[in-house]
Design goal:
Helix content: 10-25%
Largest sheet: 3 strands, antiparallel
Number of strands: 5
Number of domains: 1
InterPro entries: Orn/lys/arg_de-COase, Prn/Lys/Arg_de-COase_C, Prn/Lys/Arg_de-COase_C_sf
CATH topology: Ornithine Decarboxylase, Chain A, domain 4
Domain Orn/Lys/Arg decarboxylase C-terminal: 2-70
Distance between the termini: 18 Å
CATH architecture: Alpha-Beta Complex
Number of helices: 1
GO molecular function, one term: lysine decarboxylase activity
CATH superfamily: Orn/Lys/Arg decarboxylase, C-terminal domain
CATH class: Alpha Beta
Shape: globular
Strand order of the largest sheet: 1-5-4
Order of helices and strands: EEHEEE
Radius of gyration: 13 Å
EC number: 4.1.1.18
Pfam family, one: OKR_DC_1_C
């Protein structure tokens, strides 16, 4: 099972989809990858790409595997955490 979280909430979660900005079309995060603090620069890069498109129309980047929400932020699918008993 998966759920959607904002890009900046991915640390400590397991990614469910390939995430790649286009252009250039190079995967940055692979399915099954645990997102750790070491991954934060990649997340910050993705956030920067989102912000560039918001501030400079015509320079948007399509980020496959990320979904733009009504508030302008992007969410991604991660594996749903099991509830602890």
């Amino acid at each position: 099972m998966t759920e959607e979280v904002y890009l900046d909430e991915m640390v400590g979660r397991i990614n469910a989809n390939m995430i790649l900005p286009y252009p250039p079309g190079v995967p940055l995060v692979m399915p099954g990858e645990m997102i750790t603090e070491e991954s934060r620069p990649v997340l910050e890069f993705l956030q920067m790409l989102c912000e560039i498109g918001a501030h400079y129309p015509g320079f948007e980047t399509d980020i496959h595997g990320a979904y733009r929400q009504a508030d302008g932020r992007y969410t991604v699918k991660v594996l749903k955490e099991e509830s602890k008993k």
